[in-house]
Amino acid sequence: MNESQTHYDSELLQFLSDRIRLSELRHKFKGNMALVASQLYDLWRSGQLHVHRDWGNTSQKNEKILYTNRTCLLPTDWLQIVKESEHQQSLLIATWNINSIRSRMPLLLSWLEEHRPDIICLQETKVEDHLFPHQELGLSGYQTVFSGQKTYNGVAILSRHPIEEVKYGFSNRYDSENKRLIAAKILGIWIINVYVPQGQSTDSPKFSYKIEFLKELFQELEQFYDSSVPLLLAGDYNIAPDSRDVSHPEAMENQVSFHPREHQFLDQIRKWKLEDVFRKFNQEKGHYSWWDFRTMGFEKDEGMRIDHIWVSPSLMGCCKSCVIDIENRGQPKPSDHAPVLSEFSYQYQPAGNSRFDINQNGVKHNGGD
DNA sequence: ATGGTCGGTGGCCGA
């Protein structure tokens, strides 16, 4: 048992070592349930308690219930302590096109305070590097790496964990004057943050630029990254993947942001083994991450899902949720995009802790047990 | 309905 558990009732922990119904536990702790309940919620919140729920007598399988500050335990829930061997940390990763970091600072800081993501990828920071508000973000507990320019574009990665390595832009220097790409290795995960060109309209040179950019982006992935390790491609793709992700699919046929040549890029990264985490949990239509200011899109529930988190198989396997925080779009002075937030239960194996590792002399050795 | 509203800039552009 680790130290954080020492204040828990030992009898309670004993009962929880095998799965047990809350109602049965309540029976065993008659009269002392208030204390037990607060300990159960503590354990649950800190990721040390499994909660599974049978939905009545239906054939629906036993569902794992994740802690939120609104979820309650039910008498019929199955409880069991998380064994040390399977203990995994929760990792929250977000992406958000903030449409100017300087004008969005109050909203950004309150959102970070509320959700405490471990890592967030920002696009359209619209600020030169020497004016980037890294000190204020530092006070909120975030290390930052950023690549910006005046007026347009600009990307940044904020992290509550050490940033191990950074890549600015494309390796082949493609489009280096536009700051649309930054990547950082954090907790052993390659976090690639991209702001794909919008494209304007299919007959515009800006659309050709978008298609070329996507081609270069896929080349960059293929040549310089490995999808067999933990890897995440987040950002404003400016592409709605399928008909569920736009308000009027018929009208969007062959239009920018919903064009076969753009979908080709998604097919490429899919084939390269990346997956859209949002669709792991939600198959419904009408979930958008962007709404046009001009047409009052948000007020009319007309938008597109163009902000994405796609991940390699090892991260997909431990992905627990993905939500679009549309509540944020209803705040005063919102961005035209809402943040996308995803949770992973990811156990980082820092160098030196893995069984087979390279030591400081670069010699491979067996760490043993 | 071919507009509308943002953000940043500098005497309009990009989304």
Detailed description of the structure:
- The strands form four sheets. The protein has a six-stranded mixed sheet. Strands 9-10-11-12-14-13 form a six-stranded mixed sheet. The protein has a four-stranded antiparallel sheet with strand order 1-4-2-3.
- The chain is globular.
- By secondary structure, the chain is α+β, with helices and mostly antiparallel strands.
- It has eleven helices and 18 strands.
- It has helices at 10-16, 22-28, 33-45, 101-115, 134-139, 205-224, 249-252, 260-271, 278-281, 313-316, 326-329; strands at residues 20-21, 49-53, 63-64, 78-81, 89-97, 119-123, 143-147, 155-159, 163-168, 181-186, 189-195, 231-236, 275-276, 307-311, 319-324, 340-346, 356-358, 364-366.
- The two termini are 18 Å apart.
- The chain binds one DNA strand of 15 nucleotides through loops.
